[in-house]
Design goal:
CATH architecture: 4-Layer Sandwich
Strand order of the largest sheet: 3-4-7-6-8-12
Largest sheet: 6 strands, mixed
CATH topology: CNF1/YfiH-like putative cysteine hydrolases
CATH superfamily: CNF1/YfiH-like putative cysteine hydrolases
Number of domains: 1
CATH class: Alpha Beta
Distance between the termini: 22 Å
Number of strands: 13
Strand content: 15-25%
């Protein structure tokens, strides 16, 4: 279950990983490393999967925290871990705590992991199109600054998410982005279907991050939709008519 990692985040006292669907105990449509308690999967299986992720990072399952994600731009300062029964609603978080792993759940949306190694400040964000256009990247960078990070030192990585080739959208979607900023037109190419477009989510998320002025952004450019054996994908599930889907987890932690 060795996760993908970013070269930008490897240095310093940080453990991190972009985990896919391999290496867990869940079965059926959740096979096998489903880490989403919000899915219809067996809770004990999800707990074991998250325990495996936490162990790989060097902590325990109760210290691996995830949010009740709502596709917002809200960023939360983590001062203590919470229980799985009452996760706060937000889509980004940052902390200076050691041994607490900040996790992002996604199944096509872009997970973002960030760190200022020198300051000992880490962050993460769940960036679907709503969060991206709403400013979730800007929110987590600003929060990290308030916790002592220096913007020019922050390293960020955009993990596996749906690629432009697999992300067809309608005309109203494209119009919303272009209305927000005419230069957003560059993230769309015509779809084979008339009056539809292919949207470059990782490209857009990466550009929003770079525009904040942080030190570096690495984009892993791995498509969740295209790799059925390696990643969960909400859109693939929808196209197959399946009833539910698993969640990939990406996490970052300051080592104890």
């Amino acid at each position: 279950m060795k996760p993908l990692q970013s070269q930008a985040l490897l240095d310093g006292p940080v453990a991190h990983g972009f985990f896919g669907r391999r290496g867990g105990v869940s079965g059926g449509i959740y096979a096998s490393l489903n880490c989403g308690y919000g899915s219809g999967d067996d809770g004990a299986a999800v707990c074991e999967n998250r325990t495996r992720v936490a162990t790989w990072l060097g902590t325990d399952e109760k210290q691996l925290i995830t949010l009740y994600q709502i596709h917002s731009a809200d960023a939360l300062h983590v001062t203590a871990p919470w229980t799985r029964a009452a996760p706060p609603k937000a889509d980004a978080m940052a902390t200076t705590l050691r041994g607490v792993a900040l996790g992002v759940l996604a199944a096509d949306c872009a997970p973002i992991l960030l760190a200022d190694h020198r300051a000992g400040v880490i962050g993460c964000a769940h960036s679907g199109w709503k969060g991206a256009i709403g400013g979730v990247a800007e929110s987590v960078v600003a929060l990290m600054e308030r916790l002592g990070a220096m913007r020019s030192r922050i390293q960020a990585a955009v993990g596996p998410c749906i690629s432009q080739a697999s992300y067809e959208v309608g005309p109203e979607f494209e119009a919303r982005f272009v209305e927000e900023d005419a230069s957003n037109k560059r993230y769309f190419v015509p779809s084979p279907r008339a009056a539809h477009w292919q949207f470059d989510l990782p490209g857009y998320v990466t550009a929003r991050l770079r525009a904040t002025g942080i030190g570096a952004v690495e984009t892993l450019n791995v498509c969740t939709y295209e790799h059925n054996d390696a990643y969960f994908s909400y859109r693939r599930t929808t196209h197959r008519g399946e009833t539910d889907y698993g969640r990939n987890v990406s996490a970052i932690m300051l080592k104890p």
